[in-house]
Amino acid sequence: xxxxxxxxxxxxxxxxxxxxxxxxxxxxxxxxxxxxxxxxxxxxxxxxxxxxxxxxxxxxx
Length: 61
What we know:
Oligomer: single chain
Strand content: under 5%
Helix content: over 70%
């Protein structure tokens, strides 16, 4: 039986875009609007990436 995956390993396994946006959201406490402005993308795109990344993480645990 293999050891359970850690949160750090799970986050590291995400695509780069998802890792960056989750880092901005949860480690830097930025709002979706702030992230969108920094990355020059629509707020809806940021929210969609966050939702996808969280779904990927949930599937790993």
